[in-house]
Design goal:
The chain is α+β, with helices and mostly antiparallel strands. The chain contains 19 helices and 14 strands. Strands 1, 4, 5, 6, 7 and 13 form a 6-stranded mixed beta sheet that branches. Mean pLDDT is 90; it is low at 1-19 and 21-31.
Length: 485
């Protein structure tokens, strides 16, 4: 009997420990608490998102993206950890809210009034327009009534409401298919690959994807600009909404939101099809031979950024020479090369080593008040036009009421250095500030293309390997699910 009594006590102890371990995941946990109190008691903010070049992605095995950074800061604001769940499509995303698996959706989602019956929105943080896209080598449609192929949109997207309204009010013959298991990004890539005729996407995601898939072309805007927002479950408890409003207001007042917008949106700019195609071809043909050199000498920055700088300087031509006498992969002056112990500026390795060291020297001189993730842009401006002129443009920014430590504010003043009424106010006078502006913006665009294109190559290789493995097992390939409306 004593042995039996011991077993019962042991089983009871295990049950108590198991209940304590599972307590946070039980839906009724904290039932008497408001949403924010539940999140804080749990110690974890749970978000669901989708993979895209703006919302969430990984680089160097670390998470990145505008929505990820915002969510991480919101979790820090609440004093909890962040748990990110990545879903393959929008339907699965909203299922997480319905099933209580996510506290909010941080996925760059358009505001959509039809969703308000079941969900609530947080503050908007940027604006996009809906655009119809096609492949650049196909005829360009003039409007939704001029489509000569199949239009496919993602299930659960705000684009469905737009198309329904267009069909009811203007284009009665408009028809479309619904992809039930693909994200809007996947559909955009399918159009670029020639697998689909048309789809609808948001203007920012499209602009970013064009840096990787230049064959993706915009036919026209389907809507005017509309806000992008987070979504939370519909509830009488407004504690989460109040916390979000306070958090976003704080981000705006501190200037943190402006810096985040500059980081992810400030360089989207105009799209140059020919330049992008030329760059991507160079990635395939030229980069493989010199990639080890960028990896070797990129000590303080990502090697892909160093490669983007070199492409902007010389188009990866070690023999490149400018009319002013700068030469080589990193276009060093003779004096700069001598100071860096570069004997032969046309030697690729010496030039990359020297250019990387010179850039590092510039970064070390950048004032410490500049945020760490923006120091590189100030250093590049100095690399291009000289450190003294970079100090001048910061002073000019402050004189005009801007923030001299904010790249978003400073870059707007760069072109002023070539206008007499402004450079007359500076210490070091005239500079080709407009060239420095374009220089930094081009590098940022090349970096986006390089990072995304290499990730796309890795993804295709992984998909091909997985397909071959499945075919080796005798399993048929599965086509994506498409439903007609």
């Amino acid at each position: 009997m004593k042995r039996l009594k011991f077993n019962y006590l042991f089983i009871g102890l295990v049950a108590v420990l198991l209940a304590m371990a599972l307590w946070p995941s039980i839906p009724w946990y904290g039932g008497g608490q408001d949403t924010i109190s539940q999140i804080k008691s749990r110690g974890v903010l749970r978000i669901s998102t989708i993979n895209s070049p703006l919302t969430y992605y990984t680089i160097n095995k670390s998470p990145a993206g505008m929505d990820y950074e915002l969510a991480k800061r919101f979790a820090d604001y609440l004093g909890v950890k962040l748990k990110v769940t990545v879903r393959p499509n929008l339907s699965d995303l909203f299922d997480d809210l319905d099933d209580g698996k996510a506290d909010l959706l941080a996925a760059g989602l358009n505001y959509n009034s039809e969703r308000l019956a079941r969900y609530q929105t947080g503050p908007s943080y940027y604006n996009v327009s809906q655009q119809l896209v096609y492949r650049v080598d196909k005829p360009r449609p003039k409007n939704l009534g001029d489509l000569k192929g199949r239009l496919t949109v993602a299930s659960g997207s705000a684009y469905l409401s737009t198309l329904k309204n267009a069909k009811s009010n203007q284009f009665p013959d408009l028809d479309w298919a619904i992809a039930t298991d693909q994200s809007p990004k996947a559909l955009l890539e399918a159009v670029a690959d020639g697998k689909l005729d048309y789809t609808v996407g948001d203007s920012v995601t499209i602009a970013l994807l064009q840096r990787i898939h230049p064959q993706l072309a915009v036919a026209f805007d389907v809507t005017d600009e509309e806000p992008v927002t987070w979504y939370v479950p519909h509830s009488d408890d407004d504690s989460l909404n109040a916390a979000l409003l306070d958090f976003f207001n704080g981000m705006g007042e501190e200037g943190a939101m402006a810096r985040l917008e500059e980081k992810y949106l400030g360089h989207v700019g105009t799209f140059d099809y020919v330049d992008t195609r030329t760059f991507l071809r160079a990635i395939d043909s030229t980069l493989p031979d010199i990639k080890p050199l960028f990896e070797k000498y990129a000590t303080t920055i990502d090697w892909r950024l160093l490669a983007a700088i070199s492409y902007q300087e010389s188009h990866w031509n070690p023999q490149a020479t400018s009319p002013t006498g700068v030469r080589g992969m990193m276009m060093l002056t003779r004096n700069t090369a001598d100071s860096l112990n570069v004997d032969d500026r046309t030697d690729a390795e010496q030039s990359i080593r020297g250019g990387s060291q010179y850039l590092q020297n510039m970064m070390e001189k950048v004032p410490p008040t500049i945020p760490s993730d923006e120091r590189i842009w100030f250093a590049l401006a100095a690399y291009n036009m000289g450190y003294a002129h970079m100090l001048d443009v910061r002073k000019l920014t402050a004189k005009q009421g801007g923030n001299p430590d904010s790249w978003a504010d400073v870059k707007l003043r760069l072109p002023m250095l070539s206008q007499k009424r402004y450079y007359a106010q500076t210490t070091y006078g005239y500079a080709r500030g407009h060239e420095a502006y374009n220089y930094v913006e081009n590098i940022r665009k090349y970096q986006i293309s390089l990072v995304g294109y290499l990730q796309e190559q890795d993804r295709r290789i992984a998909q091909q390997a997985a397909l071959e493995a499945e075919l080796g097992k005798g399993y048929p390939a599965v086509e994506p699910k498409i439903a007609m409306n």
